[in-house]
Structures are given as structure tokens and as C-alpha cells.
Amino acid sequence: MADSWVNLAETLGADLHLELSGSGSRRAVLMRGLREAVRSGRLAPGTRLPPYRSLAADLGIARNTVADAYAELVAEGWLTARQGSGTRVAEQVAPAAPVRRRHTPDRAARPTYDLVQGKPDPSAFPRAAWLASARRALTGAPNDAFGPGDPRGRAELREALAGYLARVRGVRTEPGRIVVCSGVAHALRLLAQVVGGRWAVEAYGLPFHRGLLTGAGVATVALPVDQDGARVGELAKERAVLLTPAHQFPTGGPLHPGRRAAVVDWARTSGGLVLEDDYDGEFRYDRRPVGAVQSLDPGRVVLMGSVSKSLSPTLRIGWMVLPEQLVDDIVAAKGEREQWSSATEQLTLADFVVSGAYDRHVRRMRQRHRRRRDQLVAVLAERAPHVRVTGIAAGLHAVLDLPPGTERAVLKAAAWQGLAVEGLADYRHPGFPAGPDKEDRDGLVVGYATPPEHAYAGALDALCRALPPA
Amino acid sequence: MADSWVNLAETLGADLHLELSGSGSRRAVLMRGLREAVRSGRLAPGTRLPPYRSLAADLGIARNTVADAYAELVAEGWLTARQGSGTRVAEQVAPAAPVRRRHTPDRAARPTYDLVQGKPDPSAFPRAAWLASARRALTGAPNDAFGPGDPRGRAELREALAGYLARVRGVRTEPGRIVVCSGVAHALRLLAQVVGGRWAVEAYGLPFHRGLLTGAGVATVALPVDQDGARVGELAKERAVLLTPAHQFPTGGPLHPGRRAAVVDWARTSGGLVLEDDYDGEFRYDRRPVGAVQSLDPGRVVLMGSVSKSLSPTLRIGWMVLPEQLVDDIVAAKGEREQWSSATEQLTLADFVVSGAYDRHVRRMRQRHRRRRDQLVAVLAERAPHVRVTGIAAGLHAVLDLPPGTERAVLKAAAWQGLAVEGLADYRHPGFPAGPDKEDRDGLVVGYATPPEHAYAGALDALCRALPPA
Predict the structure, then answer these.
(1) B163 and A42 in contact by Cβ < 8 A?
(2) Do residues B308 and B318 make contact, with C-beta atoms less than 8 angstroms apart?
(3) Residue pairs spanning A and B at CB distance below 8 A
(4) Quick one: closest CA in A to B186, which residue?
(5) Rounded distance, CA B413 to CA A357, Å?
(6) Chain A nearest C-alpha distance from B252 (Å)
(7) Of B189, B197, B195, nearest to B338 (Cα)?
(8) Is residue A99 within 8 Å of residue B127, measured between CB atoms?
(9) For A176, which of B104, B295, B312 is closest by C-beta distance?
């Protein structure tokens, strides 16, 4: 603020412009607007105002009018004018308890390259197609779409999802058992509240989800993970097990068919629940997608999904496909009167799915992710052939295995290269003891869908430079 | 389902249509599509299929092809064909644990007229203007709008709200202290978590909010309400007080200026917080709006608002204007990684506010609500002059005072007239003893903004017929 001035014409707003074009005294209108802006805190103490010539031009009024208004406000004590410092808002004008500007700390210097998983390149959002769906949805929506609605979410969206999930993920359900929520994190909060007890979670998984469960009073125990996915044979008396069967997160393998059957058996025998986080089931590259575990027993498996990976995490739309006996409790926990997800966005997504735009977008992104994965694999084969890449058959990330004990050093080297990336240690369950066990491994989780197109080659280069030599 | 058949062409979806237009065997494609639809549960057991002539016409294929496919699927056991009952999905084809259709109970018969407060007529939603804002917002948004963002909400919206609230409600703040949330209920949940302790609430208020606080572990004590609003002089050691100063909800008066000052004094002296639910501050009819209490001390008052009353409760956008020292804790409670409100909706609302469309909409709605209020007052003056109407200077509802002991009977009479309306008893704090105290009064809370235009006169007529005779 020391060297430039505030855009006052904008701060004062459209109303002032209107008033200035009216028949009243322009000086008086401007003075009132300025006083009001200072009083309300919109103009903070110390803010530098534009030179009067400049403001006069912006507002389309005479320079003298602005000069007079400034002078009077200085006389009244609202502004100060000092040689070489321009006109500023006085430090002591607001009534008791002035609003001080919150000093938000500067963001930490941004890394040049970002390979942190879980954030699909935001420039890929299909703006035009989304807007077309929004237009159709808002034009065609019944009036009741703008009033309080079904606490499970808009029927149009639940219908569309039931069809889509049946077709693409083999899910067996009907719209009455789908509850729209704000995302998988929201789903987990609600399930923690309704199901409670102790849950088994994969030894490697999102720390964000674990933290959220602990915060909601659910204790988690770690289930070891190997190349066939979570070792569900070690399940005991847990109330539920949280799994990522399509593509173990983050280590990357699909759950072995035998284990898929075994976990459903466990649920039937023990009365437990399988919670299936289907976070990237649509993105499989080398063979047909593995269907959802949910289809093996819709009465014992909850499937959770969202558009966060496929479209954008900012839409805040996810879903839970529930066993019948859970629907009412989940709706009660969510709040009968709280939809959480905007109805207009829900209707837009319903149109997006039904019109085929979602399929087209997913197909386009699948090709793009696959190309990026191939590029990652090729670059590593050339520049770091000693580094094994795993978990590449699906998803938006891969795991680079590192020699034991080197993970921290590689992360530091990456930071030096201006590269943000995460290590496997970030994902390990705290109750899963580090040790000679082979699951306690060193590695990088590389989110290849994250960078914008133009930055991807540079990110891969930085990655290779951070890797240990052979 | 007994008398009509399913729209099979639609159920089978666009993919099947594409395949049918390809070069493969149409019979085989259709059979595969049908099997898949049954297996996935999209076609529930017992569902009646269309006659083959009809499906053939819908799909643009030969009748014989459909007839053959049906016959083979009957032979395979997927379908059944019985004289007089048409072709249906067999009852026993799905693998173990078939999905049964959830029998959602029919909604209770809807009342003919609805004067329940809190639900602005959904047909008034400004679809065209909202879409225009959505188009501008989505076209102009930076790419990062579709990635994870500021946990306080989009900067564009917080800027727009800071300006709007300063101009319209006299709020003193800056964007860094505004946190976007999903609505006032969400704000209360977050505040309950962060502030905790025991809160004073108005003796009349939303039971939904009280329940939500209790659920979040906050005990509430009732503060009596008279014609000058809540009796804040009776505040004691509570951690916070939840007030509706602009228009006491639901009894209807603004908080007396002396009490506005007193409650801020209480907060300063006791270290407590004033939580200002500014739910309808924009809708005042007979004189200038009372500014927000927040402006008296931005360091001790939290202002909460939303677009639920002014635009639509389904957008799920609200805001909290916070004292600086609460911002970080509230953001942490909300979840750094959970935006809750869609970024595209936030950007759309920002454009809607900045472009002046919000002002225009509020002005239009204010005129409409005022006209309805005047109509209510006029009709009562003519047909029930003995009934006193109060709380009419602002808001979207009024209170009709009833003779002591008659409230229940009037509500019953209203139900007989097909009219949904609520009594004051629904809003009374359970800890506020019924008795000879004048605050324990009988009355109706009449939401005059609720019905669509065409139904308003009928609703008023039903209301008058339910009122007790003079």
C-alpha cells in the first residue's frame, strides 16, 4: 500500500456512480461516500487515495470537485495529506474498536512444480459443457428445486447416479438408497456418527480421513497392505472396514478377487460393514475396470464416491450408496433440513451425467491421465531405470519405490528442485510400526494429474533430478 | 407398475442405442443390455416390460428382433411371460441378496395452502439473472477456482460480501474476517464447537437451531422476550448470546437501541460473545433498516447471514463475519480441506452481488413481501378485526395474537381448512415455563412469503376461516 493507491472508484461502488450522475452536489455525494467507506472499514486507516486527477477521470467529474472534497475531509479529520505521501485515510477516525486489517501471512513461497496427488489439474474443468448443463438444468427445473427438498438430495441426481454407477461400476442399487453429500470426507463423518465403534483402515491411506475419523470418535486399527491390497483375513471384531478396493490408496493395487469375496464374507459373518471408497474407479488404463465390491452384497457394503477427482473438488458433490437399513439414520445424521450440496449444482450434474457429457469428460481425462502416466514411466525408464514404479494400472498417481531409509532425503532434494511431492511415510497409519516388515517401505507418491499441461515435463525433470543415483 | 410398463428404451440408455446402430447382432446387443439391466438392479424383479411392438418402435429395430430377444430371455429365466400380465422381469434372477426396491412411504397428503414461515416462494428464484451471473463467473474464473481453494471461501465472494454488508447492513469488516459456510445452521455448529460453554438464546426462536446446539454439546438458557426484543439485562455468565436483533424471530420486534448497547457492554465486560443471526435484515418495510449490532463492536459480535431467505435455501451459501481472534479456530473447525459451498456457486453469487442483480432481486422481493404483508393486514382488518397482528415491520412473517388457550384449537381448525401454519408454542424454549407471564402467549406464526402468488388469496381465506370468532 506504500507505493500504490486504492482503486477508489471501485471501492465506492456502483451506487455512488449513480448518485454522481444525478442532480445533487457531486462534492457532497463524494464526501458522503468517502466518509461512509472510512466509517464502514472498507477504506482502512492509512490507505492511500488516488491523486485527485486520477479519481476525477475515473468518476467522470471535475478535478476541482475531487480536490475540494479531499480538502474538506482533511479539515474534518477523515483524511490526512502529507507532502510526498499523498492523501491517506487518517489513522484515528473510526469509532471505538476500529477494524484493523487482518494481516494474513503471505503464503509460503509456492513450489515451481506440484506432483502432490489428489488435485486434478483445475485447468481441465469442462467449463463450456458444465455451463450448458447448468443452463438446461436451471431452465427446466421445477419450481420446487429452489425450495427445501428431499434430504437425500435431488431425485434427478440420484436417478442419474443410480444409472451411471450401475453401468460403469456395476453398482446394484436404486435412487432411494443413494444419499447425496458434500464429498467422501462428509460421508465418512456421517458414517462415523451412525456406525461408530472401532474401524479397520488400510495401513496406508489418507491421513486426512484418519484424522477425521479420530475426531469423530472412531478408533482406527491398521490393516497391513501388500500387493494384493489390504490383508482382510486379519479383520477381527471391528465394526467396519474402510477400503479402497479399485486401486489401493496410495500403494496402487486392486484388491485381489479372493479378498473381495473374503471381506464380504467377513461382513456377513461378523455383522460388520464394508466401506468402499471408490475414489478413482473410473480411471483404469490397461484393462476393464474392476467392478465395485458393493455389487457383491449391497446389504453389507457402503459405496462412497464423488466428482472431486473426475471433475473438480470444488463442486462439493459426493454420494453414498447405502444398505437399506442405514438410509434413515444417515439422513438423520446429515440433517433433514440441511442439503449441504447446492440443488442447482445437483441438477446441473444430473444433466451432465444424463446427457453423456460426464462420460465424454471422463474419457478425455482418462486419455490424458494415461498419456501422463506413460510419460512418467518412459522418463523414469530412461533417466532412473533403477527406480521401480508401481500402482500404475489406474488412478491419478503412481508410487516410486525408494531404497530403504532414503525417502526423507529425496523429499528434501525435491524441495530444492522446487518440486512439491509426498512420501509414503505421510500416508502410513501411526499405529503401524515401522520395522523390517516389507509394508514399511520408502517411496514417493507422484500425482501425475496435478500439474497443468505446460508444466508437466518440467515437473518430471525436477523429479528425476531429486531421485537417488543408481 | 401393475398397469403400465417401464420406459425400457430409456432405461437401457444411450450406449445401447449406439450399439444397436452398429453392425453387430441387434438381438444379441438387446439381450446383453437387458441381462445387464436386470443384473445391475436397474430393472427390478417384477418390472413389466413394454410390448415388443412398442419397444421395437422406440429403438428403431424390427419387431421380430425384440420378440426373439424376449423369448430367449424367458427361456434363460431372466424374464417371465404370462397371459394377460405381459413380459416381466423374473422374481429370482439376481445373484445373492437381490436389491429390493425401497418402499419410500408416500408423503403425507400435502396441505392445500402453506403459510409455514421460512420458505420463500421458490417460484420467485431469479433463474435468468442467476444463469447470466453463472455464465460470467464460470467464463471469467481463474483456473484455480476449480482446485482446492482458500478454506475461508472464494476471495471474490468475501470481497463482494464485505462491500455489500457494509453498504446495506452497516457491517464493519474486511474480507479476511469473513468465512463462507453452508448457512446459518452450519455457522452455529461451527461456533458451538469453537466457543462451547453455555449460551443464552431468545425464549422464542427456531427449535431447529436449539436442537442443533444441544446436539453439539451447548446448553441453552432462555432469555425472555418482550416488545423491545430479548431482555439482555438478564444475561449472566453465559459464554455467548444468540440474538435476532433486526427482527426478533419469530415475535417480530427489533432489539431496542438501549438493549443493543447493553448487550455489547455485557460482551465487553464479561468476555462473552454476541452471535447476531441477521436472517432477514434486508426485508424492512416501513423505515430504514436497523444496522447490524456487529457495527457497534466487530471484536465482540459475530454476524451470521445467508441467501436462504433472500434467494433460495438450496444454494447452501451463508457467511460468518468474525472477530479476528476467532477466524483461525473457525476455519480449523470447518476443515481446511472442506469448502462445503461449491466454488462455482460462490463465484456466481459474487458476480450476482457485484453486478447489482442481488440488489435488484432483494428490492423486487421486498416490494412483493410488503404487498403480501399489506394484504394480510387488510384481510384481517376486514374479516377478523379482533385479532392483533404484530411483528409486521420487517421480515417474511407476522405473528397473529390469539386469546390465551386457543392456539391448539386454531391450528386444528387450520388443518381442517387444508392450511399448514405454525403456532408460537413450536418456537418456545422448553426451559421457558408456561405460565401467567405475558411472554407465554398464544399466537400463529404466519409466513406470508411462502405461497406462490396464485395461492396467496386462498391461503388468507383459509386462515381467516380458521381464526376464532370475536
Answers:
(1) yes
(2) yes
(3) 202
(4) A338
(5) 52
(6) 23
(7) B189
(8) no
(9) B104
Closest C-alpha among A122, A59, A90, A114 to residue A419: A114
Contact B134 A134 (CB under 8 A): yes
Of A104, A172, A356, the CB nearest to B99: A172
Distance in Å, alpha carbon of B61 to nearest chain A alpha carbon: 23
Give first-to-last CA distance, chain A, whole Å.
52
The nearest alpha carbon in chain B to A337 belongs to B208
Kindly report, residue by residue over B242-260, the tens digit of the pLDDT: 999 999 999 988 899 899 9
How close is the nearest chain A Cα to the Cα of B469, in Å? 34
- Grid cell listed for B361: 432481486
Pick the residue of B342, B361, B396 with the most A CBs within 10 A to test the interface with A by mutation.
B342
Quick one: cell of B95?
Answer: 445373484
Q: Determine the distance in angstroms separating the CA of B66 from the nearest CA of chain A, rounded to an integer.
A: 22
Q: Does A291 touch chain B (CB under 8 A)?
A: no
Residue A349: what are its φ and ψ, rounded to 5°?
-65, -40
| A110 touching chain B per CB within 8 A | no
Spans of chain A below 70 pLDDT: 1-6, 9-11, 13-15, 17-19, 21-24, 75-76, 83-84, 92-110, 287-289, 337-338, 433-440
Q: Which residues lie across from B8 on neighbouring strands?
A: none
Interchain CB distance below 8 Å, B13 and A298? no
Residues of A in contact with B343 (CB under 8 A): 312, 314-315
Q: Which chain A residue shows the shortest CA-CA distance from B347?
A: A314
Domains of chain A: 9-89 (1.10.10.10), 113-121+360-466 (3.90.1150.10), 125-355 (3.40.640.10)
Give the separation between CA B401 and CA B445, rounded to whole angstroms: 9
Q: Is residue A122 within 8 angstroms of chain B, CB to CB?
A: yes
| Nearest-angstrom CA–CA distance, A113 and A421 | 9
What is the rounded CA–CA span in Å between residue B422 and residue A278? 44
Using CA atoms, how far residue B438 sits from B202, B428, B441, in Å, is 15, 13, 6
Are B377 and B435 in contact by the 8 Å Cβ rule? The answer is no
Say what the pTM is: 0.76
- CA A349, A355, A361: angle at the middle one, nearest 5? 70
**Predicted confidence (pLDDT) per residue in B162-176, tens digit:** 999 999 899 999 999
Q: Hunting for cell 416488545 — which residue is that?
A: B227
Name residues 214-243 of chain A within 8 A of B (Cβ).
none
Q: Could you list the mean pLDDT of each consecutive 10-residue stretch along chain B, which spans 470 residues? A: 59 67 72 80 81 81 83 74 77 45 44 88 94 95 88 95 93 96 94 95 92 90 92 94 94 90 95 94 76 94 95 93 95 79 93 96 93 96 94 90 92 93 91 59 93 93 93
Interface ipTM > 0.90: no
Q: Three cell numbers at A173?
A: 442399487
What per-residue confidence (pLDDT) applies to B98? Answer: 36
d(CA B404, CA B357): 45
